[in-house]
């Protein structure tokens, strides 16, 4: 496997991690977030500072996740009284505030970002294996949550908050839990990104990144584990097949969101499920 292929695997892995994190918030718990890149960036900057200070890789990964989760807890707490469109606007604002804040902080490199981040020391193959291992771990965690009492609580909150309250479900607690877990995964992805690029700039965590991640969740099927993973892989690799697609990537993502919401609200997962049902009916 050459350098180009290794780079693609690393980028795909990072995007899958981000999509899995957002899927926990938006897909499992029904909270629309348009600022997921802010948590991605928070984990990245925390990891960059700790790596530069000489902390070992495992500690840096966890620290990136925890730092992002703390921000997720604060955002989740302040967003408890808003929902749907207002929640989306609130989280979008968090993304803009994050980028604006980082650009004005000299200790974070300001507009020029942070460079000369230490090497991870794993080698190319070792780093890729770590990325794939993290993806597998996050997918397993997501699958376990979806089947657990926590996942059932998330689903109840996503379907109808009022009904969930009448059933004795602590809606604010479940919302906060979704934000904390989802943003923790984004923070870990940010730490991986830092070791992959070895430099970061504020522009890498802008609004367009949040939209790209959201498109992966919507196209894959909101709440679907395998659908989101497949969509993250496809939408990451698609621009690599054509220069034209890469130049109009954001336009493509926007169009896919609109088309999916209009013609296939359940995304790829819904299409596959519908086709499998038709095949079973035809066989009987």
Description:
This protein is mainly alpha-helical. It has one domain. The model has no long low-confidence stretch (mean pLDDT 90).
Which keywords apply here?
globular, mainly alpha, 284 residues
Name the average pLDDT: 90
What is the rounded distance between the termini? 46 Å
Helical percentage: over 70%
Reading the helices and strands in chain order gives: HHHHHHHHHHHHH
Number of domains: 1
Sheet with most strands: none
Number of helices: 13
> Radius of gyration over alpha carbons?
19 Å
Class by SSE composition = mainly alpha
Low-confidence stretches: none
Give a count of the beta strands, DSSP E runs of length 2 or more: 0
Basic shape: globular
Content of β-strand: under 5%
Write the layout of secondary structure elements.
Elements: H1 3-28, H2 36-52, H3 57-78, H4 85-103, H5 123-147, H6 149-159, H7 161-166, H8 171-197, H9 207-220, H10 225-237, H11 243-247, H12 249-263, H13 267-283
Helix pairs in contact: 1-5, 1-8, 1-9, 1-10, 2-3, 2-4, 2-8, 3-8, 5-6, 6-8, 9-10, 9-12
């Amino acid at each position: 496997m050459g350098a180009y292929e290794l780079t693609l695997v690393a980028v795909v892995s990072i995007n899958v991690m981000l999509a899995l994190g957002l899927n926990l918030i938006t897909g499992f718990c029904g909270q629309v977030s348009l600022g997921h890149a802010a948590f991605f960036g928070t984990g990245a900057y925390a990891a960059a500072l700790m790596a530069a200070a000489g902390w070992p890789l495992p500690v840096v990964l966890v620290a990136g996740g925890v730092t992002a989760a703390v921000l997720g807890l604060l955002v989740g707490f302040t967003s408890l009284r808003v929902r749907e469109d207002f929640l989306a606007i609130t989280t979008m604002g968090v993304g803009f505030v994050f980028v604006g804040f980082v650009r004005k902080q000299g200790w974070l490199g300001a507009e020029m970002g942070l460079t000369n981040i230490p090497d991870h020391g794993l080698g190319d193959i070792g780093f890729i294996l770590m990325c794939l291992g993290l993806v597998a771990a996050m997918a397993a965690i997501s699958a376990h949550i979806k089947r657990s009492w926590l996942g059932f609580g998330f689903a109840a909150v996503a379907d109808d908050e009022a009904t969930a309250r009448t059933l004795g479900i602590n809606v604010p607690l479940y919302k906060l839990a979704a934000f904390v877990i989802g943003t923790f995964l984004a923070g870990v992805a940010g730490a991986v990104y830092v070791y992959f690029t070895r430099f970061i700039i504020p522009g890498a965590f802008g609004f367009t990144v949040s939209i790209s991640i959201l498109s992966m969740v919507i196209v894959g099927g909101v709440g679907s584990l395998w659908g989101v993973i497949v969509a993250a892989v496809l939408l990451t690799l698609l621009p690599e097949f054509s220069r034209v697609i890469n130049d109009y990537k954001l336009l493509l993502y926007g169009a896919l969101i609109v088309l999916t919401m209009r013609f296939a609200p359940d995304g790829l997962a819904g299409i596959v499920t519908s086709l499998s049902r038709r095949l079973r009916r035809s066989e009987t």
